[in-house]
Every structure is written in C-alpha cells, then in structure tokens.
Amino acid sequence: MGNTLDKVKKALDTEIEAILHFRENLDPNVEKAVELIFQCKGKVIVTGVGKSGDVGKKIASTLSSTGTPSYFLHPSDAAHGDAGILAQGDVVIAIGKSGESEELLNLLPTIKSIGAKLVGLTANPGSRLALDCDIVVLTPVLKEACPLELAPTSSTTIALMLGDAIAMALMELRNFQKEDFALYHPAGRLGKRLSLKVDDVMRKGDKLAKVSSDASLEQVLSEITTKLVGATGVVDPSGKLIGFVTDYDIRKLLNDGKLEKSIKAKELMNSKPTVFESGIMAYDVLQSMERRDKPISVAPIVSKDGALLGIVSIHDLLQKGL
Predict the structure, then answer these.
(1) What is the SS3 string spanning 152-187?
(2) CB 317 within 8 A of CB 308
(3) 0.85 cut: is pTM over it?
(4) In whole angstroms, what is the distance from residue 268 CA to residue 147 CA?
(5) In this predicted model, what pLDDT tens digit does every residue of 145-197 receive, in sequence order?
(6) What is the DSSP code (8-state) at residue 68?
(7) Which of 126, 244, 265, 308 could hold 273 in an S-S bridge, CB 3.0 to 4.6 Å?
(8) What's the CA gap between 191 and 177, in Å, rounded?
(9) pLDDT for the residue numbered 109
(10) C-alpha 246: how far from its chain's center?
(11) For residue 308, what is the enclosing H or E element?
(12) What is the dihedral of CA 36, 39, 40, 46, to 10 degrees?
C-alpha cells in the first residue's frame, strides 16, 4: 500500500510541477484573449474533442455561471448542422494539446467563413490550430503525469486551470457580484444562501402565531399548538412586538412549579427576545441562531418600526437546504 501511495504522490507532484512551470511561463497573449472575450458582443463558444472536449464543457459552464454566457460545441456535431449556432461577432475558444485533431481542424474553415473570432489553447505553437487562430495562448506541458507520457493528465489540468483563470478575470472585469451569482444558481445551496431572504421562509399571515398581552394561558397554548411553530409573538393593539413566548418558557415554569392557570401572556413572555428584521438573508438568520452562546430554535421577524411580521424556526431554515 505504501508503494501505491508513493505512486499517487508522484503523479500529483508531476502535475504540480507542470502547473508551476506553466504559471511561470504564462503566455502574455492570455491578456489579449481575455480582452477579446470581454468585448465580445455575440456568444462565446467553447470546442474541443476527447479529453479537451470534456475540459471545454467545464470551462463553458464556468464562464456561463460567472457572467459570460457560453456554450460548448462538439466539432463532430458541428459538422452535422450544429455549426448553425455560430455567428459573426462570436468568439470561439478551441482547445487541443496537439492542435492537430482532425475533427477540430475541420471546424476551423467554418468558423473563419462565418466571421467568428478564434482563440486557441494549445501546447503546440507550430500546429494548424495555432497558425489559424486570431489569438493563440500556448499551454506548454513540462511532463504528463502518465508514466507512459500518453494519457492527457497534466495537459488537461493546465487547460482547465487556464479556462478557470480566464473566467475569473472576466468575472472581475464585469464586476460580477454575489447577487449575480445567486441569480444564476437559484436551486443550489450557494444560490439559496445568497438569495433566499427570511421573508421567504418565515411563518406569516394565517400561519403567524400571535396573541395580545392579556391572552390567557389557554389562548397562548392554543396559538402555539395550532400554528405548529413552538412559540408565539405577543403584540400590542398596533401589532408591534412587545414580547415572545416559547413552549420552553412554559415548560420551565411548569417544572419550577410556578405555572398558574390564571397567568397571562405578559407574565409569560420574554420582553427582550432576539429578533431579526425583515429583508435579512435567511442564511444569516440561521447562522445567528446556531452560533449564539445559547442557540435558539425560533425567533420573531419584525419590520423597521418593530411590527411583528413573522416567526421563523431553525427547522424551517434547514428544510430549505441552507
């Protein structure tokens, strides 16, 4: 097993050395490539075959999710009609270590005829891909991690990292913010954390538990039980929150032998509960509830002027996948 671990480490070391060599010899043409893509008024199309195609799919996805709409076009599909997606004003990023893959080269005349600009990512400066590109960014590979020097390993890692780096540079140029990222990732955990507000999660309207300060113990318990949130807000006649009663508060008094049947909500309530203001991000509420010295499981949501708008439980927040 130790020998196997050495082999794994050797492969990793080989790729790391190749990446560092690439970083230290970074082709300055990458700046021109980024500028061309940034100024593009059309689409960004990424293409490549084999492992380069797999890398291209990931680069296209990363570009799209960070503010640069992009599509992956397989050269073989392009030869059978899918080249129709190309238009004058587009930028095509073609990836190929050797720059001599037949399927990729067959696509180049079509790209030129349509009038799209071509950016090539290749390790071979003398290749047809490099010679036919408007801008070529060389990706020299010190050594593949494959002991036979055959399987694309270091070369695909370098191409992938370069694509990521280009995407990140474009992201900064576009001033792409967290809110933009959330817009493009609405279903994922990151998107939810960046976009979901507490107002989208809290119990409100008919589901909001609230009572007056003179509410009886029976009324308080009925409200907590009916609304299934484990607590109720206590409000004044104008709807302003003046206190909060949780089922824990009631159980504690019961255990201490201090729970009288005649007790009112104003005697049960915590007059200074932890509250959150409407409009705050749901994930921030979850973090605040969990990271307190004494974590809480339920909290009221209020308006700027203190009116009770809703109640949120930690269970509600977790159910949203935060």
Answers:
(1) CCHHHHHHHHHHHHHHHHHHHHCCCCHHHHHHHCCC
(2) no
(3) no
(4) 73
(5) 999 988 999 999 999 999 999 999 999 999 988 777 766 666 566 666 667 88
(6) -
(7) 244
(8) 12
(9) 94
(10) 35
(11) strand 308-313
(12) 40
